[in-house]
Structures are given as C-alpha cells and as structure tokens.
Automatic annotation (TrEMBL):
<comment type="similarity">
    <text>Belongs to the PEP-utilizing enzyme family.</text>
</comment>
<keyword id="KW-0479">Metal-binding</keyword>
<keyword id="KW-0418">Kinase</keyword>
<dbReference type="GO" id="GO:0008965">
    <property type="term" value="F:phosphoenolpyruvate-protein phosphotransferase activity"/>
</dbReference>
<keyword id="KW-0808">Transferase</keyword>
<keyword id="KW-0598">Phosphotransferase system</keyword>
<protein>
    <recommendedName>
        <fullName>Phosphoenolpyruvate-protein phosphotransferase</fullName>
        <ecNumber>2.7.3.9</ecNumber>
    </recommendedName>
</protein>
<comment type="function">
    <text>General (non sugar-specific) component of the phosphoenolpyruvate-dependent sugar phosphotransferase system (sugar PTS). This major carbohydrate active-transport system catalyzes the phosphorylation of incoming sugar substrates concomitantly with their translocation across the cell membrane. Enzyme I transfers the phosphoryl group from phosphoenolpyruvate (PEP) to the phosphoryl carrier protein (HPr).</text>
</comment>
<keyword id="KW-0963">Cytoplasm</keyword>
<feature type="domain" description="PEP-utilising enzyme C-terminal">
    <location>
        <begin position="12"/>
        <end position="281"/>
    </location>
</feature>
<keyword id="KW-0813">Transport</keyword>
<keyword id="KW-0762">Sugar transport</keyword>
<keyword id="KW-0460">Magnesium</keyword>
Length: 309
C-alpha cells in the first residue's frame, strides 16, 4: 500500500504550492548507468573514486573519458554533476594520498591533492570535458573539500580553461559554509556535503559508529550552517544543493527545502519518499518546520517537531 501511495507521485520535485526542488541522484560505480532509468532530474553527485581504486596509478584520460561517457549517455538531456576525485581520509589511494599522515581526515585530501599532484586533476578535467563533448548530458563539475574562496576561484579557473561551462564546489568544511557568499562569487553553484560538514562541525570522525549521535544530520547546529549557505545562495541568485545523506531523509528534505536549498541529491531508492514528502507540504510549511528544527535543543526534538503534526 505504501509503495502504491509513493508511486502516485512522479515527475519533478516540487512542494504542494509548486515551488521547484530538483530531485537528483548520487551515483558511483555500477549504479551510475542504471540510474538513467530512475525518475529523477539527473545526477547531483557522480562520485568518480571508483575508477581510481585498486590501482597503482591514475587511469588515463581516454579510460576516464569512456567511463564518464557511459554515465553521460545514460542521462542524455539531463544534468550530471561530476565530482572530481575525493581521495584521502575515508577514501585512501596509494598514488594520490600519504597514508602516514597522522590525521588523514584533516590532511591532504580532496581538492588539496591538486597542489602537489596537479596532473591528476588536470587529466580528470580534460577527460570530463572530452566526454561532455561526446554526449548531450548537461555536464557540471564540482570539487570536494574546498575550504576558501581562493581555492574555489583556482578550481573554477582550471575547470573553465578545460572547457567545462558550469562549475561549482562542495561545501563540507565549516569555514566554507561561513564564507559561502565569497565562494559563490567565484562559482556557478554549490553543493553541501552534510556527511563531512557534520564530521568537521562536531569534530567527530564519520567512521566511528559510537559518535553517531553527534553526526546526526538533524543536529540543529548543522542546520544553522545549511541555512547560512542557502541564504548566501539566494542573495547571489545561485543554486545551493545538498548531496550528503541528509538529502534522502523525507523529513529532512522538508527542512532543507524550508531553509532554501534548491536541489536534493540522494540514492535512487530514497527518491519516491522525498518526492512524496515535498508534495504534501507548502513552501511556507517547509519554512515553518525548518524554523522549528533549528530552534530545537537536540536532534531528537528537531525530528519530533518536524514529523509531528
Ligand atoms: C559528503 O561529505 O556529504 C558527501 C556527499 O561526500 P562523501 O560522502 O563522498 O564524502
Ligand atoms: Mg564529503
């Protein structure tokens, strides 16, 4: 019965009063091309790490071009946001990261690798641009682990020089959330990675299950940072997405929409529940619930307030 109820809603994400919220997919290895069958507006996070795993050196430009092309073909006519390599910390790679770092989550990971090993990023951007030219998906690119507006500007310069038209960065470090306006001045969009943003906001390793309560995406301080970024996006007139696990929780999707987030990217199975939750709420109701969640003293209260009544 619940499946039938969810299946009653199809098509683009929107609230009961018609406010659009793009519903996008997080894809990685294997599920990427199959995701083309899903009723979603495209891909909000294409994790490219899988291509680089179990190797002693980076894949060639041609190899990458073919792999990205398979995903772009599956999403022809739709948006695909490719994230450049996010190696390090929970995703170590022998040729890119230094396993002797004492604190890998605080080390040379994500975009930071480009400073010492620029060819990995340069080759990847060249491959993405070449694959985009081969297909008619609407290809966007974004960098992980951006901390400053200067890094965002540097990445945007490289991506545009490679010929990629739409360039963004992830907001997953609190400093970047605090300065989202300056970052948005350099790029076309941002996407909030709530998994890492929670880790760095609470100084709690995302791999440690016992710290789960601190990493709860309903944490009001995390919602405060999302609100700051969404407000900066509205001021700049640029999109602000969420692509961390939070985006796939129907109750949180309502809250994130109420905070002003413009797209939600999630695993394919989460899409119907999020779509249905948004269709049942007006944008004013989303905003009121977002306010209740932010004012809550803890995640359990935030959840209870939003889901009740
Ligand atoms: C995140 O940090 O929220 C995110 C989407 O990226 P990943 O989980 O791959 O670090
Ligand atoms: Mg991340």
């Amino acid at each position: 019965a619940r499946r039938a109820e969810l299946a009653a809603f199809t098509g683009p994400g929107r609230t009961a009063d018609g406010h659009p919220v793009k519903l996008l997919l997080n894809v990685g290895e294997g599920d990427a091309a199959a995701g083309g069958e899903v009723d979603a507006e495209g891909v909000g996070l294409f994790r490219t790490e899988f291509l680089f795993l179990d190797r002693t050196e980076a894949p060639t430009v041609e190899e990458q071009r073919a792999a990205y092309g398979r995903v772009f073909a599956a999403f022809s006519g739709r948006k695909v946001v490719v994230r450049t390599l996010d190696a390090g910390a929970d995703k170590p790679l022998p040729f890119a990261t230094d396993e002797s770092e004492p604190n890998p989550a605080l080390g040379v990971r994500g975009y930071r690798i480009a400073a010492g090993k620029p060819s990995i990023l340069d080759d990847q951007l060249a491959a993405i641009a070449a694959a985009a030219a081969d297909h008619d998906a609407d290809v966007h690119v974004m960098a992980p682990m951006i901390a400053t507006a200067a890094e965002a500007a540097e990445f945007a310069g490289k991506a545009r020089a490679a010929g990629i038209g739409t360039v963004g960065v992830m907001i997953e470090i609190p400093a970047a959330a605090l300065r989202a306006g300056e970052i948005l001045a350099e790029v076309d969009f941002v996407s909030i990675g709530t998994n890492d943003l929670a880790q760095y906001t609470f100084a709690a390793d995302r791999l440690l299950g016992e710290l789960g309560p601190l990493l709860d995406p309903w944490q009001p301080p995390l919602l405060d940072l999302v609100a700051m970024v969404a407000t900066a996006g509205r001021t700049a007139g640029k999109p602000v997405g969420v692509c961390g696990e939070a985006a796939g929780d129907p109750g949180l999707a309502v809250v994130l929409t109420g905070l002003g987030v413009t797209s939600l990217s999630m695993s394919a199975p989460a899409v119907p529940g999020v779509r249905a939750a948004l269709r049942r709420r007006t944008s004013d109701d989303c905003a009121a619930r977002a306010d209740l969640a932010r004012r809550a003293p803890d995640p359990a209260t935030a959840r209870a307030r939003v889901l009740g009544g």
